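Q: I have 156 residues here and want to know how they pack in 3D. Can you give me a structure?
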Amino acid sequence: MKMDTLTLVHVAISLIAILSGFVVLWGMIRNRRMDKRTLVFLAFTAATNLTGFVFFPITVLTPALILGVVSSVVLLICILARYVFAMRGVWRPVYVVTAVIVLWFNVFVLNVQSFKKIAALHALLPAGSEPFAIGQGIVLIAFIVTGLMAVMRFRP
């Protein structure tokens, strides 16, 4: 399947957001601030959301559009907690939880799109989508566990 330039740019931005997000999550678990990497993660996550709204036509309300709006709201809270409220008091766990949530949203979309667009992955799915749902469930559990670890360990 051929990808147009705008889609390729959107995917590249999304992958940078995801990779940098994993580095930031690992840093939180290890109690490291990672200021520059955090800026990359949050900026590229914002760019992912923005390009999702701008590059692709919006003709009807879809689950992807709803997820994009929710992700944008959660990301805004994350940015406020990190940069406006400087992770003081309750804003520290708010920052950690919202950062983990927006990273999970990106990974969730990556999984969905991978199984839809990559023929080898799509072929793994039988008529029902149970294996896909189980896989997404495992990813969600992994994010909950690592998110809880980050909340408990990240004390800048």
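Q: Anything worth noting?
A: The first helix runs from residue 5 to 29. The radius of gyration is 16 Å.
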